[in-house]
Amino acid sequence: MSAASQARRMRGPDELEIVAFERGGFTSYSACGIPYWLGRVVRDRDSLIARSPETFRRDYHIDVRLRHEVTAIDLDAATVTAWDAETGREVTEGFDLLMLGLGARPLRPQLPGADAAGILGVQTLGDALEVAAALERDPRRAVVVGGGYIGLEMAEALVRRGLEVTLVEQRAQPMSSLDEDMGALVADALREVGVVLYTGESVTGFETSDGAVRAVVTEQRTLTADVVVLGLGVRPNVALADSAGLPVGASGALVVDRRLATPAPGVWAAGDCAEKFHRVSRRPVAIALGTYANKEGRTAGINLGGGYASFPGVIGTAASKICDVEVARTGLTAAEARAAGFVPVAATVDSTTRASYFPGASPVKVKLVADAGTGHVLGAQIVGREGAAKRIDAVALAVWNEMDLGELINADLSYAPPFSPLWDPVLIAARKAAQEVTAAT
Ligand SMILES: Cc1cc2nc3c(=O)[nH]c(=O)nc-3n(C[C@H](O)[C@H](O)[C@H](O)COP(=O)(O)OP(=O)(O)OC[C@H]3O[C@@H](n4cnc5c(N)ncnc54)[C@H](O)[C@@H]3O)c2cc1C
């Protein structure tokens, strides 16, 4: 819908007719807000909806067709076929330009019992309504499967709702988008808020009775569950485009150029289904983030509307939290840097979010990753309490602009006791990383 509304801003209804097919019942909502609505931090569900279908129809003259699932794309005939869930009929629509914003497909385990009632995902607002309904039935025990950021945020939501929460993660630490030493801090934070955490443990199946889930079975134990929330990650939703003959890249997402054009003339793709260029690893990646989807949607919309815009790529900046503990990352972790062919050095520092003497100062750990050869900042990870996560943005700009540690050390970041120590934790980490670079060369 970002692309559609941007294209509309470029071309009026007389010049460009826009039809939008959506298989669900909502448009333009913040999936990112779902855990906070379920956790009752955000009270009003409708506040997650940025623009309703009625707004798109009335103010943007976009013909939004809800509950229409596109089932086929014929590039030669320039048509899409959609199934209208309300009438049960198929409709075919021709196009001059086609924009694919198919999103991502949440992974579901192919395990015994996985289809039982009470095993829920949180990919869409429709899913969230199902979780909300399940929570209204006063469940006592919840198991979250998967310790990525969605699993983390859902664990928080369930804790807030007063459930006994267990989280099962197959890797050694939750938040596998961090290096393991930083993931260990997230594990501590989960335990601190009462989540029972089992890491290095895979789910092997689900026990059910009367079609409903009763327990999650892992290699080591059986965990009683009234409700199970899946946070196993997502993959680009490309099956439809793939079967239409559009190329899928090594990342598993649709191949697009910098303007978000696919190789098929007049066909564009943006968001979770589209491949992104990682500016540090210089590789194509599939990273599902709303911040990219919105920027790419705007870019594609300008191009669809006859303008010229390009999307410069991504560096994997993201933030999340578990109750009071904030988590953020940008660029490459040390492990990712090695995999991308760098020889990284990493410096980890413990500091405080405010001047150490200032009320409310709390611990923050910053891990900075740099290239041993050039001293370029490759990435950072931050875990700490209030005020920790958004510090990542300073490093993100350093990574984005290919700054080296010398430049970062002297960067003019703000200081006052309520906000940071005299040397911001990011700058202390940069100083330490510079020493590591010197030692390595
Ligand atoms: C719980 C949760 C929390 C998140 N938190 C954050 C966060 O804090 N920060 C962040 O940056 N990102 C976050 N994200 C990720 C972010 O929501 C996604 O990256 C973003 O929504 C992707 O936008 P998109 O338009 O590519 O896909 P989507 O928003 O998924 O939209 C794709 C749409 O296409 C529809 N569709 C798919 N196939 C068809 C078809 N064949 N026919 C018709 N319609 C179809 C789907 O129903 C869907 O509505 C979160 C996601 C979730 C689920």
> What percent of residues are in strands?
25-35%
Q: Identify low-pLDDT runs.
A: none
Q: Note the gap between the termini.
A: 50 Å
The description of the largest β-sheet is:
5 strands, parallel
Please give the domain count.
3
Strand order, largest beta sheet: 8-15-9-10-11
CATH class term of the largest domain: Alpha Beta
Shape summary: globular
CATH architectural designation of the largest domain: 3-Layer(bba) Sandwich
Tell me about this structure.
The protein is of the alpha/beta class. The chain has three domains: 2-105 and 237-304, 3-Layer(bba) Sandwich (FAD/NAD(P)-binding domain), CATH 3.50.50; 108-232, FAD/NAD(P)-binding domain; 324-440, FAD/NAD(P)-binding domain. The chain is 26% helix and 27% strand. The chain has a five-stranded parallel sheet with strand order 8-15-9-10-11, covered by helices on one side. Strands 20-21-24-23-22 form a five-stranded antiparallel sheet, with helices on both faces. It has a three-stranded antiparallel sheet with strand order 3-4-5. Strand 13 (212-218) and strand 14 form a beta hairpin. The radius of gyration is 23 Å and the shape is globular. The structure holds flavin-adenine dinucleotide. Flavin-adenine dinucleotide (FAD) binds next to strand 1, helix 2, strand 3 and helix 8.
